[in-house]
Amino acid sequence: MGALGYLVAFLAIVSLIIVHEWGHFQVARWCRMRVERFSIFFGPVLWSHKRKDTIYQIGSVPLGGFVQITGMNPAEEFDRSDPRVYPNRPVWQRLLTIFAGPGANYLTAVLIGVFVFSYYGLPVPTDETEIQGVLAGKPAAKAGLQAGDVVVSVDGQPLTKEIPMTDRIKASAGKSVTLRVQRPVLGTSGQPIVVDGKPQRTTLDLPVTPENDGGTFRIGVQIGAGQRFERKGFGNAVAFAVRWPYEFSKQNLKAIGELLSGKQKPEVSGPVRITAEIKKSIDRGLQSALLIIMNLSIYLGLFNLLPVPALDGGRLVFLGFELISRRRVNQRVEASVHMVGFVALFLLMIVVLFKDIFIG
């Protein structure tokens, strides 16, 4: 799809941001709070429009968005006796409003999942070794490996449960190896060609030279069990779509735990790389595109629920304390904590964006 693919990928990310902020916005209004501003992106305003009491705007820095509810920042000027300002609403309404952003992302993922799993079928694992992700700039990417490739053998040696692909790569000691992969054949519509229920594949031999990564030789891929999709009825599709956000969140929380414990090296992706990955999925077809958008929506919801200052999860921690102790945290102290968190996250996003653009 070329440039159009990147545009569609970018619009997909923007849509997930809008969904998140729309969740905050709609529940805040339902709870009779004053919403001053609904912004997509940060930074200097490129476009704005005021409707009733709310200004709708688009910022110039594509790193998220925000909903400004009157009274969330205690330093701003507002009528502190107004029952519609944020601090004067019941704690359960404030909890619901903050949770509504991530909740909207989870709901969106479920709706996408209902369509994907009912139309294409439920994923059924196979014994195949499938490339699920390729890290930019690593040996696998340079060799031409792609997500969706199924690795059949390494240097002519078939892969088994006893001797998986990772073991054969480590045993190479940095010498070039040849991976035999089977790659799905796509039709003119971009969808994989399936004949008699079996996806058509072409076989490729790709030489790749592993790199030494802290004493272990790797090629820079994420691998997992292969899978095929089987239709199992609408009811099963709905049940799987509802359960999947929980399962995917659990996987990501486990990965975050391994990062914090040092078991994994951090690989942070910014909007540029994420857009590129979505574009690759779009190129592979609608099913692949919808699956990655569904998972990204879940990830966006989960990320915002982390108990980090400035994120929704950080605000929920303070509200949870208030609900349990029946004592409100000093608003200026809470605002200062969130401001420090916001500055730290914003600087991190700038660094990641710079890395995406200039380092790759």
Structure write-up:
It is built from nine helices and twelve strands. It has two domains: 3-116 and 298-359, no CATH class; 127-229, Pdz3 Domain (Roll), CATH 2.30.42. Helices cover 48% and strands 25% of the residues. The chain has helices at residues 3-30, 91-119, 139-143, 165-171, 234-260, 271-284, 286-305, 312-325, 331-359; strands at 35-51, 54-69, 122-134, 150-154, 157-158, 177-184, 194-195, 198-199, 201-208, 211-213, 216-218, 221-230. The strands form four sheets. Strands 3, 4, 5, 6, 9 and 12 form a six-stranded antiparallel β-sheet that branches. The protein has a two-stranded antiparallel sheet with strand order 1-2. α2 (91-119) packs across α8. It is an alpha+beta fold.
Helix and strand arrangement:
Elements: H1 3-30, E1 35-51, E2 54-69, H2 91-119, E3 122-134, H3 139-143, E4 150-154, E5 157-158, H4 165-171, E6 177-184, E7 194-195, E8 198-199, E9 201-208, E10 211-213, E11 216-218, E12 221-230, H5 234-260, H6 271-284, H7 286-305, H8 312-325, H9 331-359
Antiparallel strand pairs: 1-2, 3-4, 3-12, 4-5, 4-6, 6-9, 7-8, 10-11
Helix pairs in contact: 1-2, 1-6, 1-7, 2-5, 2-7, 2-8, 5-7, 6-7
